[in-house]
Amino acid sequence: MSEQKCQEEYIRRIHKVQDYIQHHLGRSLSIEELASTAGFSKYHFSRIFQGMLHEPLAHYVNRIRMENALFLLAHRADKNMTDIAYELGYTDSAVFSRAFKNYYGVSPREYRKEYSKNCKESFLLSEYNKNTAKKEWTDDLFPVKGKITIVNLEEKQVAYVRHTGTYETLAKEYVNLLQMLFAYAKKQQLLVEDQNLLLAMYHDNPEFGEKSQFRTSLCLTVPENIQVQEDGILGRMKLEGGLYVVGHFQIQREQYSDAWNYMYQEWLTGSGYVPRNSYPFEVYCNDPHASESHIHEVDIYVPIEPILL
Hints:
- This protein has 309 residues and is α+β, with helices and mostly antiparallel strands.
- The chain has two domains: 3-120, Homeodomain-like (Arc Repressor Mutant, subunit A, Orthogonal Bundle), CATH 1.10.10; 147-306, Multidrug-efflux Transporter 1 Regulator Bmrr, Chain A.
- Helix content is 40%, strand content 20%.
- The chain contains nine helices and nine strands.
- It has helices spanning 3-23, 31-38, 45-53, 57-75, 81-87, 93-104, 108-122, 167-187, 256-267; strands spanning 147-153, 156-164, 198-202, 215-222, 235-239, 242-251, 273-275, 281-284, 296-306.
- The radius of gyration is 20 Å and the shape is globular.
- Residues 120-128 and 131-138 have low confidence and may be disordered.
- One of its GO terms (molecular function) is DNA-binding transcription factor activity.
- It holds the Pfam family HTH_18.
């Protein structure tokens, strides 16, 4: 195996572990379990993980849990401390509270209280695909409005290439990533007429995560009867099914953050729903360069569930 192929295989295995951790935060994740998922010896896995991501395994798992905790405390008032503790794999609320305070310097109850007091200033930080400076509060908070539908989505198989880093670096590398995705999909004969949706999946909440660690996957849906061969560049995962609100937008390139803000602030807050702890994503419905107006037709999917009162 060439050096490049070997590196690609290591990347593929680390991506698998990252996805596994995200989907199993409610469990106590042992080194044996994670090493097995990656296909590495448990005696060497921690060093390999840290070498690839420049972050110790235990720190990574704890950071992902803490970032999810911020989201739940801020946006899921229907969940108490015990609910959040169990959802994130802690044995009880006391253990969760100690871990949270050790990480952030305040208790989860204090954070929730302060967030609720100051949410007007911080809510608009949910800016996925952010390529403009944060907007100040103005009379016209939502210059972009979309048509809203609610769908129950079936689970889908997707092939993906992944970017880790800020949204600014993502914007610079976007075209190359897209070309890579289609080249590998074509090589594996994954492209089927009218059956491949192009989408971007955002694995980290930009309101709470570390910018340099944001994970974004550019994906193509692939029919279930076609096997995706993972090779370190191209990965395979499941797009989670369930209830989603879909915002249908026709926008210019610089208006993506406005569209996301419309979804999270204007629609969601009065909808009777709350965000479900899963990944949001964008589905790209046209080629904006095919017309003089350069309009982007995009559907934004946000996972939701009814508010429990």
